C-alpha cells in the first residue's frame, strides 16, 4: 500500500510544480480566457432550450422530468409503495435471500436446519463488494454537496419560496429514475475472476441494448457515456469540489498568497489518494462513516433553527405552497417557478445522469431490484430532506414580519448571486446559507466550512470511482490503466484548488448533465427488464414471509 502511494505522489510531483507555476504566473487566466468560448458553447449546447409558450426550458431538464414522471406512473409510484421495502432492505432484513437465494433457504427443508446455517453462511456469498448501506452512502456522498447548500439559496432567490415545493416534487419523481437505473446497473454488471465488480450505465447500455437487438447503438452509447463520465470526474466531480473547499478554508483561516491553493490542494490530494487507491471497498468504508456524520451534523443544525423559529413554521410552509401556485410579481408565473425548482433539484440529486448506478452496481446481492429500491432513497435524502431543510432555514432568515410579497427582492437577481431584501448586499448562495445559520447559531459558519470540506472530499472520492470505472471500460482493467487514471485524478485535485480555471470547470460541470442523454435513451429501452427484476425480488420476499409464517427459521438473525 505504502509502495503504491509513494509511487503515485512521485509521479505527481512534476504536476505539482506546474500547478504552482499556474498560480504564480497567472497562466490559469490565459488558459481560462482561451478555453471560455468553447466552454460557453458546450454549456449552451447541453442546456439547449425548447420553447414552450413564452418559456424556454432546457431540453435536458425536460427529458429528466418527463422520464421520471413516466417511470413513476409505470412502476406505480415506487417512491411511496416501495419506500418501506427500501428501508427494510438497507437494514438487512432480506440479506439472507439476497446472499444465498430464496429457493435454497426457504424451499429446501435441509437448508433450514439451524445447525447447518452458520457454515453455509460462512462459505458462500453473493457477487458484489459492498453492502446496501455502503453502496447508498457512496452514492449519496457523490450527490450531497454544494447543490444542497448553495443551490437551494439560488433557487429561492430566483423562484421564491415556491421553488422549494417543486424541488420536493422533482425529488420524489427522481426516486423512480434512480430505482430504474440502479436496478439495471446490478443486472448487467461484470464480475471479474477475483470478484471485482465492474458496472454502471456503460455496461447496461452495451449489454442490455445488445440483448434486445440494438447492439451497435448500445456500444456507441456506452462509449459516449464513459468518455463524458471521465471528463465529469476530473471537472465537476473533482476540480470544482477541491476549488470550493480551498476557497472556504482560505476564507476561514484568512490565508493569502499564491501558493496557498497549491498547499491545500496537495493536502487534499494526499487524503483523497489514501482512500481511492484502496478501491471501492475502502471508499465505501470511508463514506459510510462520513456521510451519516456530515448529513447528521447538517440536519441537526437545521433542526435547531427550525425549532428556534417554531412559531413561523406554519407561515414558512404557507409561503412555500402559496408561492408554488401563486407566485409573487416578477417571477414570470407558475411555470417559471416550476422550472427553477425542477432544474435545481435535477442538478442536485443527479437522477437520470446514471453516475450513482456505478456505485450501486458494486452491492452484494443476487437480486438486482434489491439495490434499485435502496437507490430510490438517495433523492429522498438529498432533495426531499436536506434541500427542504436548507430552504426552511433561508426562508426563516428572510421573513421580515411584514407582507409576504416583501420577503424577497426578486428583481435583484444577478448571476449566481442574490441580493437580500434585509441587507441589500450581493452575496453568493453559500454565503446566504451561512448567514442564515449564523443568525441563530453564532459562528456556525466555521462548522459549515467543515461540512463543505467533507461534502467536497466525499464527492471527490465517489467521483473518482465513477471515473475509474468508465476509464476501465475504455482502456482495459489492468493495474497500469488504474494508476494512470488515479494520478491524473489527483493532479486535478491540486489544479482545482490552486487555479481559477472557471471555463474548464464550467465545461466539465456541463458534462455531468450531458450524461443524461445516453443514459436516458438506455432507460427508455430497458425499463421492461426492471419490471421483471422487481417482480422476481418481491416474489422472493413473499416466499420468505410465507415460510416464516409457516414456522420456518428466519435465517437473517444468524448473519
TrEMBL record:
Name of the protein: Alanine glycine permease
Lineage: Bacteria, Pseudomonadati, Bacteroidota, Flavobacteriia, Flavobacteriales
Entry keyword annotation includes Ribonucleoprotein: no
Membrane topology (UniProt): Multi-pass membrane protein
GO molecular function: amino acid:sodium symporter activity
Coiled-coil residue windows: none
One Gene Ontology CC term in the entry: plasma membrane
Location within or outside the cell: Cell membrane
Main localization (coarse): membrane
Alphabetized UniProt keyword annotations: Cell membrane, Membrane, Symport, Transmembrane, Transmembrane helix, Transport
Organism: Confluentibacter flavum
NCBIfam families referenced in this protein's UniProt entry, alphabetically: agcS
Segments crossing the lipid bilayer: 55-75, 217-240, 260-278, 290-310, 316-342, 373-399, 444-466, 487-505, 511-527
